[in-house]
Amino acid sequence: MRLAREEWPNPKVAWRTTNRITSDFVRALPALVWNLEVPGVPRRTVRAILVHLHNARCRWIKTLGREHGIAAPVRVDQRSATQRQLVVALKQSSRGIEALLELGLASGGEVPPSKGYVWRNLPLDVGHVLAYFVAHEAHHRGQIVLVARQAGLRLPPAVVNGLWWWTERPSGTRTRPARRH
Fold it and tell me: What confidence score (pLDDT) does residue 130 get?
């Protein structure tokens, strides 16, 4: 059964949460972690993984959106990007992902296939597109936590707890409130 558009949950709200969590994670990472190498993957650093998130967004925006007038942001260099530069870039690519989701909503719940889109492992209904992007980012954020632990570093609680702060944080809040049992 197809839902009328006004009945759909707004996937852009869920995407904004994911982008905020990723951006806060990048912003809060200690500088020491930024250049950590990934064990077993020569020349791959935490910086490269995080830049990959933005660059992958750009590739999807280009692949799925270009024909429909959605411009992909400029990619970021994985060897030289700073945390601040990446946060700015993530904001730009987040707007592009939102535009893809809006395109899908305006097209009856499916992102229209592009001529250049041949890889068919991703269904183009808005729910699957959103789930794919959210899962991709969560995977890499978890990978970075593991890389830090493998390097013998414990990330500050504000960084790790921030991965699970899905509501807006009150201004100045650095960690989750204490649990009540």
Answer: 97
